[in-house]
Amino acid sequence: MAVNIQPLAEYVLAQQEDAETKTASGLYLMEKSQEKPKIAKVLAIGTDAKKVKVGDRVIYKSYSTTDVKHDGQDYILIKEEDLLATVK
């Protein structure tokens, strides 16, 4: 998927993963009960971002994102220093 947004400096453009709709025991969660995951897939990186690459799945600080809507898609911009880990 080609994205027409290029982050600047140490920013990372990512797309948040979908929330779980079912508990481990099989119960379905109502939408308002679903916790937004703090995991996103990296789609583009700024020139100063060095610790992640496009395609990585990352865990990030939930309060540190900027929501972006472009061409009908939802994205988030995250400063690289607010990334906590990569998910293997």
Secondary structure layout plus pairing:
Blueprint: E1 11-16, E2 39-45, E3 57-60, E4 65-70, E5 73-79, E6 83-87
Antiparallel strand pairs: 1-2, 1-5, 2-3, 3-6, 4-5
Number of domains: 1
Report low-confidence residues grouped into runs of 5 or more: none
Percent strand:
35-45%
Q: What is the helix fraction of residues, given as a range?
A: under 10%
Q: Please, could you describe this protein's structure?
A:
This protein has 88 residues and is an all-beta fold. The chain has a single domain (11-87), classed as Roll (10 Kd Chaperonin, Protein Cpn10, Chain O). Helix content is 0%, strand content 40%. The protein has strands spanning 11-16, 39-45, 57-60, 65-70, 73-79, 83-87. The protein has a six-stranded antiparallel beta sheet with strand order 4-5-1-2-3-6, with no helix packed on it.
Notable features of this structure?
single chain, six-stranded antiparallel beta sheet, 88 residues, 40% strand, 10 Kd Chaperonin, Protein Cpn10, Chain O, mainly beta
Summarize the structure.
This protein has strands spanning 11-16, 39-45, 57-60, 65-70, 73-79, 83-87. It is mainly β and 88 residues long. The model has no long low-confidence stretch (mean pLDDT 87).
